[in-house]
Write a structure and sequence with these properties.
254 residues, alpha+beta, Glutaredoxin, Antioxidant, Horf6, Chain A, domain 2, 5-stranded mixed beta sheet, 8 helices, 20% strand, elongated, redox-active center, Thioredoxin domain-containing protein
Length: 254
């Protein structure tokens, strides 16, 4: 009897990509998209690696991350109205992400040529003609979407049949250690809030640097929370003055 592990191992095949400047890459051919085999990723998981074609050429995802923060966000298809507005908004905010050492990378379930045509539309209607300057992954086989658990319960049947699904609409914030720090998944009808993604980056980077937590609706410059694990004495030494509302709820500025 052949085990599932041995079957999956046989699915790794060397597939040369016929195109300029492309080297042969290893691609995973899934036996199926069965839900029982669905990978599970959580906050704190190492971001699954993959090698894939993009509008900026082939990438190894872990090499692309390097020592940067990365935002990976996905779309179910090209030329979709809500996704067009989102990609344009991320492109317009790219200078702000650059200041924070954050790379952007999109994903859609069609090929590079289709992506490039879509980018022209985005530049026309969303970026006022400015260049769209970050890569979009070509995930035509939905393998990255499957690996990152982007599909809802109802869409597994469509995924296995190779049909378009409407729920590959997730956002992942990944840190320089390649750990997933935030996951958000949106329905097809609801556009994402790029300002919220930027706010979370600020909060995560501040928390990592200063050992603090951020309260509801926090933005840069507002008070932060001193973790309950830090004593009053240590808090005074580390942060100086702080505001104590409850023994477990103390605010300061950093």
């Amino acid at each position: 009897m052949i085990s599932r592990v041995s079957v999956i191992r046989k699915c790794f095949v060397s597939t040369p990509y016929v195109g300029p400047r492309f080297r042969p890459i290893q691609q995973l051919r899934f036996v199926s998209f069965k839900q029982v085999d669905q990978p599970r990723i959580r906050i704190g998981s190492i971001a699954p690696n993959f090698k894939v074609d993009t509008t900026k050429g082939p990438i190894d995802f872990h090499e692309y991350i390097g020592d940067s923060w990365v935002i990976l966000f996905s779309h179910p298809a090209d030329y979709t109205p809500v996704c067009t507005t989102e990609l344009g908004a991320f492109s317009n905010l790219k200078p702000e992400f650059d200041k924070r050492g954050v790379k952007l990378i999109g994903l859609s379930t069609e090929g590079v040529d289709s992506h490039k045509g879509w980018i022209k539309d985005i530049e026309e209607v969303q970026t006022n003609g400015k260049e769209f300057s970050f890569p979009i992954i070509a995930d035509g086989k939905r393998e990255v979407a499957y690996k990152y658990d982007m599909v809802t319960e109802e869409d597994f049947g469509a995924l296995e049949q190779g049909k378009t699904v409407a729920t590959i609409r997730s956002v992942y914030i990944i840190d320089p250690l390649k750990k997933i720090r935030l996951i958000m998944t949106y329905p097809a009808s609801t556009g994402r809030n790029t300002s919220e993604v930027l706010r979370v980056i600020d909060a995560l980077q501040l928390s990592d640097a200063k050992g603090v937590a951020t309260p509801v609706d926090w933005t840069v410059g507002k008070e932060v929370i001193i973790p309950p694990t830090v004593s009053d004495e240590d808090a005074k030494a580390k942060f100086g003055d702080f505001r104590k509302v409850k023994p477990y709820l103390r605010f300061t500025k950093v």
